[in-house]
Design goal:
This protein has helices at residues 22-39, 47-56, 62-74, 108-121, 193-196, 202-208, 219-222, 257-273, 336-339, and strands spanning 17-19, 80-84, 123-127, 136-139, 157-160, 172-179, 188-192, 213-215, 236-237, 244-245, 252-254, 275-277, 283-288, 292-296, 309-316, 326-328, 331-332. It is α+β, with helices and mostly antiparallel strands. The chain has a single domain (17-339), classed as Clavaminate synthase-like (Double-stranded beta-helix). Strand 9 and strand 10 (244-245) form a beta hairpin. The protein starts with 16 loop residues before the first strand and ends in an 8-residue tail after the last helix. The structure holds 2-oxoglutaric acid and fe (ii) ion. Keywords: Dioxygenase, Iron, Metal-binding, Oxidoreductase. Belongs to the clavaminate synthase family.
């Protein structure tokens, strides 16, 4: 695993930013409140609620729907799209750094707005073994977890594709900002493999295409255990000129010296090409998780009720391709049990 982390990351702004008008934002508020009116007592996993979200998502501004579908079908070089002007509740304190995750109904407009956006891209899912399978998860700094390579930490969060250790990682993830950090320095980072592929030497690509890498399960899935590993896997798979990507520059190891060198080279190239945005309230970043890494620069939490607060939501393009993993509702099994005995050692 990479232990050195650069203290600062040079990033450029993302290329694709959609700015919603006040009128468009107001239309999303109305749609979200209508959903809240009908489903305020429901669990987010209930099908009646989820299908209603998909139906009402048809009333998102048509310009936004078109851009989302374009991103869904074609992606972009950054592997990320920012939407500015999604409505969020701004008067709710950030969850306490030593307390429980809040109930979704604390921020219903934020919840339904994000779920509608994700429903245009696919079907919203969660994972049974992470954060109780929640379909929308709260991302805020946690007391005592500052140095963890998790979204509850506040040191630099290394570039990664989400949940690459799972059999069925999400296809898209979104992060919506309810509140930024005090110093406005925490930048959400992203970079698509398309940006770096032309710069990767052919012999390095060949190594990255072999099953010579393993990723440790994130501790958010394992109740703190750090010794559960994925099976050996390749970083690059699929089409030669537009590959899929599975990588984690904290949790992944190369299983031999050549593989580790290839991983280190790839990390340098991503850092040279990365885009980033210090998200402000109402800004939502979507990451194309099959082809792009994301991460976050460091920041200082204060634990005063006004810390940085993002909310995260996943979707997959086709629910039928993951149905074999469904546990209850839209919470997928992680397969961690099968991996308990797989070990890895650093090259
Ligand atoms: O906090 C951020 O901006 C990114 C966190 C992250 O990587 C995640 O929640 O998956
Ligand atoms: Fe992440």
């Amino acid at each position: 695993m990479t232990t050195e982390t650069p203290s600062a990351v040079d990033y450029r702004p993302p290329q694709d930013i959609i700015e919603l008008t006040e009128h468009e934002t107001a239309a999303i508020v109305a749609a979200a409140l209508e959903l809240f009116g009908r489903h305020r007592h429901r669990h987010l996993h209930e099908e009646a609620l989820l299908y209603d979200v998909e139906t009402v998502a048809g009333r998102l501004p048509s310009r936004l729907q078109t851009e989302l579908r374009r991103f869904r079908d074609h992606g972009n070089p950054d592997g990320a799209l920012v939407i500015d002007g999604i409505p969020v509740e701004t008067n709710v304190p950030t969850p306490a750094g030593d307390g429980p995750d809040p109930h979704w109904s604390l921020v219903p407009v934020t919840t339904f707005a994000q779920m509608m956006v994700m429903s245009v891209l696919g079907s919203v899912i969660g994972y049974r073994d992470e954060k109780e399978g929640r379909l929308v998860q709260d991302v805020f700094p946690r007391v005592g977890q500052e140095r963890r390579q998790e979204n509850s930490g506040s040191v630099l969060l290394e570039l990664h594709t989400e949940d690459g250790f799972l059999d069925r990682p999400p296809h898209y993830l979104s992060l919506i900002c309810v509140r930024g950090d005090h110093d406005a320095v925490a930048a959400t980072l992203a970079c698509g493999i398309r940006r770096v592929l032309p710069s990767i030497p052919a012999d390095v690509v060949a190594v990255l295409r072999r099953d010579r890498f393993q990723i440790a399960f994130s501790t958010s899935f394992t109740g703190g255990r750090e010794d559960i590993w994925s099976r050996p896997l390749a970083v690059l798979t699929g089409p030669i000129d537009d590959p899929h990507l599975t990588v984690d520059f904290h949790g992944m190891v190369g299983l031999d010296g050549e593989a580790q060198n290839a991983l280190d080279r790839l990390r340098e190239l991503f850092l040279e090409n990365v885009v980033g945005a210090v998200l402000r309230p109402g800004q939502l970043m979507i990451v194309d998780n099959r082809v792009a890494v994301h991460g976050r620069t460091s920041f200082e939490p204060r634990y005063d009720g006004t810390d940085r607060w993002l909310r995260r939501c996943f979707s997959v393009s086709d629910l039928r391709t993951v149905r074999d993993q469904a546990d209850h509702g839209r919470a997928l099994r992680s397969g961690g049990e099968r991996h308990r005995r797989i070990t890895a050692s650093r090259a």
